Structures are given as C-alpha cells and as structure tokens.
Amino acid sequence: MKINIFNTIITLFISLLLSYGLYNLCSSNMKNIICVGSFLFFITTLTPSIGLNFYYARTNTNIKTLSLVFFILGLISNILFSFFLFSTSFYVMLNGIILLVFLLAANSIFKAEQ
C-alpha cells in the first residue's frame, strides 16, 4: 500500500468543504453533529479511493470502487439527515453501522491480496 500525500491532502479538503456545506444545509439543532460525523465519514471513505494505491490491481480496483460506493451512500445519508429531523442517536447508529460495514469489507478485500 502506498500513500499519495498530495491526493490525501486534497481528500482532506474535499471532506472539509462537503462537511461545511452540510453544516449550512442543516436547519435543525444537529448542525455540529452532522458536520463532524459527515467529515469522519467522508475522510474515511475518500482516502482509500483517492489517496491510497495498492500493489495488486484487483485490490486497488475493488477497494476504490467500494470506497466510492460507500462515499455516495454516506453523502446521500448525510444530506437526508440535514434536511429532515432525526434523533442524534439514530444518526450516530446508522452512520456508524454503515462505516463499520465499509471498514469490514475493505479489510477483507485488502487481506485477500489479489
């Protein structure tokens, strides 16, 4: 696995800007939670897809595809949470489960070494 520093920094700023945009879209009192939660979700899913390169071509393609799919899922989820009123515990549980499923799937792809 190789870390591309420049792409990782770009990923950081993309995540920050998207989180700030969701902060401004949110009309409920969950602004701060959505901002921090979406930033953690975006940085976790965008870094493998943009900032990392893997030695095996299959692993590289599979992890990048998985990361982008979960990034889009997280983006849709956080946009919905910004527009509609939900409880904080539901937000944390749902995004936490989605993020943990992503990490489990990415780890299993990485361990396969194909």
Question: Nutshell version of this structure?
Answer:
Helix content is 82%, strand content 4%. It is built from four helices and two strands; from the N terminus they run E-H-H-E-H-H. The chain has helices at 5-25, 31-51, 57-83, 88-112; strands at 2-3, 52-53.
Describe this structure in words.
α1 packs antiparallel against α2 (31-51) and α2 runs parallel beside α4. This protein has four helices and two strands, in the order βααβαα. The model has no long low-confidence stretch (mean pLDDT 92). It has helices at residues 5-25, 31-51, 57-83, 88-112, and strands at residues 2-3, 52-53. By secondary structure, it is mainly α.
The total strand number stands at: 2
Mean pLDDT: 92
Distance between the termini: 13 Å
Put simply, the count of helices is: 4
Model regions low in confidence, pLDDT < 50 over at least 5 residues? none
Nearest-angstrom radius of gyration? 15 Å
Order of helices and strands: EHHEHH
Q: Indicate the overall shape.
A: globular
Q: Tell me the β content.
A: under 5%
Q: Which strand order spans the largest sheet, edge to edge or round the barrel?
A: 1-2
Q: Helical residue percent?
A: over 70%
Q: Indicate the structural class.
A: mainly alpha
Main pleated-sheet profile: 2 strands, antiparallel
Quick tags:
mainly alpha, 114 residues
Furnish the topology, listing elements before pairings.
Blueprint: E1 2-3, H1 5-25, H2 31-51, E2 52-53, H3 57-83, H4 88-112
Antiparallel strand pairs: 1-2
